[in-house]
Amino acid sequence: MKPFGVIPWTEDFFAGVARRLAAETGGDFRDVLVIFPLRRAARQLIDRLAALPDLPKPLLLPEIVSVNDWLPDQGLAFAPTPPAGLDVLDRVAVLYDIVRELAPDDITGDAFPTDVARFFPWGLELAELMEELFRHGLAGKNLDYLEGQVLPTAAALLSRLGAIHTRYRERLLAEGLSTPGLATALAAENAAAVADGLAGKRIFACGFAVLSGAEKTVFKTLWRRGLAEFLWHGDPALADPSGRVHFACLEQKRWLGGWNARAVLLSDGQKRRRKATAQPGRPTLILDARDANLSSKHLRFFEGHDLHAQLKALEESLGALPDLESTAIVLPDTGLLSPVLHILPKKDVNISMGYPLARSSLARLLETIMTLQETRLSAGRYHWKELVALLRHPYCKMPRIGDVQPLRTVFHGLEAAIRQGGAYVDPLSLPIAVPEDGPPAEAVTALCRRMLTCCLTAFEDVTTPRQLAHALSGLAELLLDPAHAGDTWERFLIDAECLFRLVSSVIPALDSGRLADAVLPRDTLFALLRRMLADERAAFEAEPVTGLQVMGVLETRLLTFRRVFVLDAVEDKLPGSRPYEPLLPDPLRRLLGLPDSRERDYVSAYNLYRLFFGAEDITVLYRTGATGTGLFDDNPSRSRYVEQLVWEEEKRLGRPLAPDEPPVSLVRLPLCPIPRHDAAVPKTAAVVERLAARLGEKPVSATFLDTYLDCPLRFFYRYLSPLTPAPGGGRGGRPGRRGRGGPRRAARILRAAHRPRHRRRGL
């Protein structure tokens, strides 16, 4: 059995893998299989192989695969018949049939969801749980007596989880169906046969920090037969049996012990002994391979009140750099991408991260459409505020006729008409005012009605996923219509990618499958669409990985950068909290043998510290100010990894760090000073004339006098301002009605900008 090779995490991992492959094979890669935990690693390894000076070229490259592609392919060979893949909705349909079969025999009461509408949200959670059990090679088992710990429906499903899992697996195999998880489980169950099929191959498993249960079974079989060699990127102390290993690599240390394996240090592709002897007092948070303290690297922390302070420090730090080569900005939250792009220097930037479809402008448009249907009073009558939100969405005003975007003017007129009507309006019954100096009125009117029909009427009567897919298709066809889109999607690439995900992934999933024609309540259909949008991500992969990179934490795996900036390093993001799972909460996952938050935290620590060890300059930014105003405010605390690194520095100093003492710096934004003088409006002839006109039109009231005596400036904004108040926002949601809304509301908004701190005299 081959020892595990450890490439020190202060070195470039892919360069080390390339050297090891060349040293082991001599450049003959015909029977070499390289397996990585991620797909994008293939490009990196090919570049490093091309850069090796002693490797003869041209040559036949090794087979390079990701484990998520390779292992299911191995398992599909052991299916009884060539299987057909199932998407999420089809899996829910199969599970629904199984639940209905179980309910009459074993279940009593109303907790068990036998109605498709009630089962649907639980079916999505159950389908994901089945996939996890398959990936870890586990059999489901009944979890009894969970009443009071989970919701009644979850307790009912978990009490028959073993039967559901068994029948689900049998049904898939009997009907020639498959999922990625089931294919992975089949590979693990036939691990010996998989190894027989790979006899004669030289397999290198590179960059794995943890393995799922099925992966562990297959790789262990290959390793014991001498077919596989593992290459790690981690603490060199892993190669020292008596050494103290960095805590982020403790799981790899347990891995060695569980397999009764040993590790060796790799240098220039050759096995080397670790020169340093075991040091019991060696710190576990060092950031280089020479047992030096973290201050040997340029490690800085910037503490700001909010995101604006972090962005200011990031902008100043980037501006002070001589170059941006091999620089990575790591974003734990994809919502930080847009504000970060606005402060970057005007140079080429590579974005390499998955952008959630739920955060896109397209998702906001679909959310507005769904809200319109959820608040609809009757057929064709929608709430005015949601209609205004729809008319103001940029996608709705974007279609062209020639070189003109006529809907901008048309929708502006429709918005004014909607604000003068009742609380619920039928927009298709309103007159459409077409400008005379634009395209033909007939073409503009037809385009306007088509847009309103696609956004409103098409979604009114949807009752099945297929009908919802057709409504979405009509909207997508309008947005992509070459006669009206022009070059819009060529200029807005992120929006184009999100629209592509909708057309290529979400709509086909709704339009096909066993549940496509199932009649579901509107709320269930919209909940399904929201869930699918939340699961979709628009992937951006930068090639080559040079210059300035903007990346997520997962996208940094196995990569090495000279400079690293980590933004918003708070506990809620690093490592982050696992979202609540209503079916199987985190404390119950161990009952099934599934990994819980402990493994997730370990993977997060390994990814972050591996990135830190390979960098020369590390900058971590975090915030301390609350972002809410209610009872459950977001009161962020700096990440545990920041606390660990600061604690190491404090131990070195022998005292706590003072505020704003290096390596921690406070970011201070300039504050707006309090005005030295009260605001005032000059009493010009126009003001006197307007006051005289006001006194001549209406009698003087007590409120009129009190307002002037209290604050003449407020009096001016309320009674004499030439600004016209915005229409709409009246009492009871009816626009145009005079009451607490209308002109008085507009006047309050104007006055709020200049509200006095004390009584002011003189006008």
Largest sheet: 8 strands, mixed
How many β strands by DSSP? Answer: 19
Tally of DSSP helical segments:
30
**Shape summary:** globular
What is the end-to-end distance?
92 Å
Q: Give me the Rg, rounded.
A: 32 Å
Q: Low-confidence stretches at least 5 residues in length (pLDDT < 50)?
A: 288-296, 729-763
Q: How does the helix and strand content classify structurally?
A: alpha/beta
Quick overview:
45% of the residues lie in helices and 11% in strands.
Task: Outline the fold blueprint.
Elements: E1 4-8, H1 13-25, E2 32-36, H2 41-51, E3 63-66, H3 67-76, E4 84-85, H4 88-106, H5 116-135, H6 152-158, H7 161-174, E5 177-178, H8 180-189, H9 191-197, E6 202-206, H10 213-224, E7 228-234, H11 250-259, E8 263-267, E9 270-272, E10 298-304, H12 307-319, E11 327-331, H13 337-343, E12 349-356, H14 361-374, E13 382-383, H15 384-392, H16 394-397, H17 407-419, E14 424-425, H18 441-455, H19 465-480, H20 482-485, H21 488-491, H22 493-511, H23 522-535, E15 537-540, E16 548-552, E17 563-566, H24 572-576, H25 597-613, E18 617-623, H26 640-653, E19 664-666, H27 685-697, H28 702-710, H29 712-720, H30 742-752
Parallel strand pairs: 1-7, 1-8, 2-3, 2-6, 4-5, 6-7, 10-18, 10-19, 11-16, 11-17, 12-16, 17-18
Antiparallel strand pairs: 8-9, 12-15, 13-14
Helix pairs in contact: 1-2, 3-8, 4-5, 4-7, 5-8, 8-10, 9-10, 14-15, 14-23, 15-17, 18-19, 19-22, 28-29, 29-30
